[in-house]
Specification:
This protein has helices at about 1-10, 15-25, 55-65, 70-80, 95-100, 115-125, 125-130, 180-185, 205-210, 210-215, 225-240, 240-255, 260-280, 300-305; strands at about 40-45, 50-55, 85-90, 105-110, 135, 140, 145-150, 170-175, 175-180, 190-195, 220-225, 285, 305-315. It is of the alpha/beta class. The chain has a single domain, classed as Rossmann fold (3-Layer(aba) Sandwich), CATH 3.40.50.150. A hairpin with a 2-residue loop joins strand 1 (about 40-45) and strand 2 (about 50-55).
């Protein structure tokens, strides 16, 4: 494709005027997966690897400066060894693009329609990496059935979830879904070195459901926990009216009347325990900083009140 040729010929950012001239000429007569509207391509360097991106300049600057999840890229560099990488919750492609330098093949799963468009735009700017990345525009779920996903504020904001949460301000959209084990079997995928799962609370149903995949392939698992989102989802199920939820939440948090939501909290903790039990075959658990974590200390104040990411693996860090 001529676009691939141009990007390979000019590996550095091309100004918006040049892009517009291309668009008015050859590209104006053809249909492509991305609308080239005065693209301001940015070059981002991550651990000596260079990728080209579009949109979200502040976000990508934070990535380049090491201010956005620096441990995430360190973990990818540590545990990907020219094998297969599964990026479940790939968002706009930052982790998948970087992983493509390290992995033999990358499978990126992202159901958010706005994030998909940005991911495709970023793929189009990195034709060499694009050859190694398969973007799967579906959600991985416990039953493989189509379902709604819910945005926190708006789609594409990195917080879309299969959970309907109490304080979501946005809308919902139906998306396609699949079973991970069936996907791997159909594609004859083996040699999985690392799986990253960052799906905004969906992990509490998905991880137990993919237990057999994890135990069979024994990949390192880089898992983000979103316990507050799980709690919100259960709270919404128990109290369907938003104003009622506000009242009980106020009583629970502001007045320290923990008994008000005791059943809600217990149900959420039980789901967390079930998730952790499904991962008990892993020999080591590490924090994002590489510190060894005891399984006995996993259900603690930090995990129950915030967002935590852990590495489950059978090799020493």
């Amino acid at each position: 494709m001529i676009w691939d040729y141009l990007l390979n010929r000019f590996p550095y950012p091309i100004n918006g005027t040049f892009h517009r001239r291309i668009h008015q000429g050859y590209f104006a007569q053809h249909t492509f997966m991305y609308s080239f509207k005065a693209i301001q391509m940015k070059t981002v360097q991550i651990h000596d690897q260079t990728i080209h991106v579009d949109q979200r300049p502040d976000y990508w600057q934070a990535v380049a400066d090491g201010n956005w999840e620096p441990n995430t890229f360190k973990i990818l560099k540590r545990f990907i060894k020219n094998d297969t990488f599964l990026d479940i919750g790939a968002w706009i492609g930052s982790t998948s693009l970087y992983a493509a330098f390290l992995a033999k093949r990358v499978y990126s799963f992202e159901p958010d329609p706005i994030a998909q468009k940005e991911f495709k735009a970023n793929l189009s700017l990195n034709p060499v990496l694009r050859k190694k990345i398969d973007l799967v525009e579906k959600a991985i779920t416990a039953d493989g059935q189509n379902l709604n996903i819910y945005c926190r504020n708006e789609f594409g904001d990195s917080a879309s979830s299969i959970l309907s949460r109490s304080w979501d301000k946005g809308t919902e959209v139906e998306v396609e879904a699949l079973l991970l084990d069936e996907f791997l079997e159909e594609r004859d995928i083996d040699g999985i070195g690392l799986i990253k799962v960052d799906i905004e609370g969906g992990e509490f149903s998905v991880i137990p459901a993919i237990h057999n995949v994890l135990k069979t392939h024994q990949p390192t698992l880089y898992l983000s926990f979103h316990f507050p989102y799980l709690f919100e989802s259960i709270l919404k199920e128990n109290y369907t009216h938003r104003q009622v939820r506000r009242v009980v939440n106020f009583l629970d948090r502001r007045l320290s009347m923990n008994f008000v939501l005791m059943r809600t909290r217990k149900r959420a903790v039980d789901q967390l325990k079930a998730l952790l039990d499904s991962l008990s075959f892993y020999s080591f658990i590490y924090s994002e900083n590489g510190e060894l974590v005891s399984s006995k200390d996993l259900i603690d104040h930090e995990m129950l009140n915030g967002f935590t990411s852990l590495v489950f693996t059978n090799e020493r860090w």
